Amino acid sequence: MKRHFRPAMTWLHDWSGIITGWLLFAIVLSGTLSVFRPEITLWMQPELTRQTVDSDQATEAAIAWLSAHASDSPSWYLDTATPRAPFTLAFWSDKNGYTQRPLDPVTGSPDGLRDTRGGEFFYRFHFELQLPYPWGRLLAGIAAMALLLTLITGIIAHRRFFADFFTFRPGKGQRSWLDAHNLLGVIALPFHLMIAFTGAVTLASLFFPWSATALYKGDTAGMQHDLNPAAIERPRSGTAAPLAPFDAILHTAQQHFGKTGIAQIAVVNPGDRAAVITMTAGNEDSIGITSHTISFDGPTGAILAEHIERRPAIMTYNVLYGLHVARFAPGVTRWLYFVSGLILTALIGTGLRLWTVSRARKVSHFSTILVARLNVGFIAGTPAAFASYFLVSRILPAGLADRAGLEIRCVFLIWGALLVFAALRPVRKAWPEILTLAAAACAAVALFSAPWHRAVDAAGAIIAILLAASFTFAARRSSLKNRII
Amino acid sequence: MIFLIGLLAVLLLALTTHRDAATLTLRPLSSQHRLILRGIAFLLLALQLTLQIRNSDSTAFALIEWTGLFSVEALFAAVICTVLRRWREPLSYKQRKFGSLS
Amino acid sequence: MATTRYRSDIAIRTLTGIAGGYLLAALLSVAIARWLPLPRIEASAAGMLAGLLAWPPLMMTAFAIHSLPRLCAGFALAGALLAVLSFWPV
Questions:
Q1: Which UniProt keywords apply (chain B) (predicted)?
Q2: What's the domain count of chain A?
């Protein structure tokens, strides 16, 4: 039994890793970039140069603009302006369906701002994979569970956990790849386990709705109400009524929330007698999300319900969710999430690489060649494609029709082209070529950050230069003569 | 400063593993020395956490930051060990000529 | 012949781990939700998280237990027990 256990777990680690590895690589890389979601949006909006904004004034301007231009939308959803994201991010429905745009903090209008998804692209791709509901989320959830499984079996498979804690022996082929894989896994193991499990938690209701189904027996509204007693839902009445003055409502909410402020605002049935405004507090002072909610009657501005989360199981869920999305994170922690995310990306990359390196000495089997080519396409191609998103966003003219959609189509076009290129080209040549392309794309992102006045441009340029240097190094190493494919 | 305390602790921990002791010092350490070094390292890590908790509004936030910092410190320590080892035992002629087997 | 046997062994374990493991985890989430003396929404959330936590270890169990008949019997027994707990009329 004991002699059988470790080999079995190693086998499971290898196979669950290779089957989900490429998908996980893209998910983890986009998730890592999502750490700086508002910053990326800001980077892609060079017109937004204002350093400080008054969040409440920006919200009032946004509500005024939406009342004038989006009164037909069944609901509006706003992420309020913050020092990190000095714009209101609004989500509403127009004649083309739902759109999400940043609104100018002074005029409240999206005019003059570029039509781009910004950092929202990476965030959405991270768990929806640009696939229709629910397929993307299902795949992402399975990937999260597989990552958790692969991590746990990996710990069991690793024989010298503490003895090899800091060991990396370069220039020794398979030995070096295994060293790097172990090192990257071990040093950030708490983060890896946390992010895999909490990632699965964010999609848990999709996989395990059965407990709620069993207890509520189809009473979805009752469950929603229990989940957040302050989330009031009522049907449209058909009688028009303007919203109460918004400054007073904002003032009341700010008083109730204290220093955490307002993070999100939902206006359901705007312009109707049955309008409801729901405000969610920010969570800069606690890990858990949605800890405090208030809803107001739209036409009168009276408080309909208020809820402060204190129930243990729901709070556990909210804290696990909050750990994953890291909205609480102060500056240093956010950077640590980013670095840890890169470490996890590299862990998956080295794991995929090990698969081919450890099999290279055997006869070149079709499956080994397939894995090798997919490795080039995903490990080198994904960063190149993601970097190209930044470039496309700067190159496309600001006033183009359906600009946001075009940007994303370009990314997938480039990604697909790189995958095809990697599938056709000899692996030995494709590695340095695509890695060089990724380095060039990152260097170009640094240049396009000019004139580096805003903090996001300067920081973006520095990260891009560091990444360009890493890819250049990797490209040089991969072009060495006697390396294994 | 907090980062340096942690880095020192992690380097001491590296000293207590067999392989890296040989890299960082000339002579292998006795098991008693190793135990003492490990003790100091854990004390330093505890000191780092205490300082972080004092600087932060919330213990939970400090704990998350400490865990994250540890990863970065361990990465630095591994890089330092690798560079030192490379410096101690230069590449063989074959490796220089043909590049390493990677 | 060794490879066919090996392959069918792997196939059965994979199926037991993924589908069987999911079924057990789902039943566990329902059983926990029904028997925890908590308000409905709290019990639902606790059950959901428990199901999530149970799935990966169940998957590992499917590959860790050496004897295939014993593995299948164990999963079936656990499934039956949890099904009784989940659907027992209260």
A1: Membrane, Transmembrane, Transmembrane helix
A2: 2
Number of domains making up chain C: 1
Tell whether the model's pLDDT for residue B2 goes beyond 70. Answer: yes
In the complex, which subunits touch C with 3 or more CB pairs below 8 angstroms? A
Size of interface A-B (CB pairs under 8 A): 108
pLDDT in tens, A173-219: 888 899 999 999 999 999 999 999 999 999 999 999 999 999 998 88
Q: Is ipTM > 0.90 here? A: yes
Test C48 with A212 for CB contact under 8 angstroms. yes
Domain of C74, in residue numbers:
2-87
Chains A and C touch (3+ CB pairs under 8 A): yes
Owning domain of residue A66: 55-118
- Put simply, whether B91 touches A (Cβ < 8 Å) is yes
Nearest to A287 among B60, B69, B100 (CB): B60
Q: What is the 3-state secondary structure (H, E, C) of chain A?
A: CHHHHHHHHHHHHHHHHHHHHHHHHHHHHHHHHHCCHHHHHHHCCCCCCCCCCCHHHHHHHHHHHHHHHCCCCCEEEEECCCCCCCCEEEEEEECCEEEEEEECCCCCCCCCCCCCCCCHHHHHHHHHCCCCCCHHHHHHHHHHHHHHHHHHHHHHHCCCCCCCCCCCCCCECHHHHHHHHHHHHHHCHHHHHHHHHHHHHHCHHHHCCHHHHHHHCCCHHHHHHHHCCCCCCCCCCCCECCCCCHHHHHHHHHHHHHHHCEEEEEEECCCECCCEEEEEECCCCCCCCCCEEEEEECCCCCEEEEEECCCHHHHHHHHHHHHHHCCCCCHHHHHHHHHHHHHHHHHHHHHHHHHHHCCCCCCCCHHHHHHHHHHHHHHHHHHHHHHHHHHHHHHCCCCCCCHHHHHHHHHHHHHHHHHHHHHHCCHHHHHHHHHHHHHHHHHHHHHHCCCCCCHHHHHHHHHHHHHHHHHHHHHHHHCCCCCCC
CB atoms B78 and A333 under 8 Å: no
Does A238 fall in a domain?
yes
A483: chain B residues, CB-CB within 8 Å: 99-102
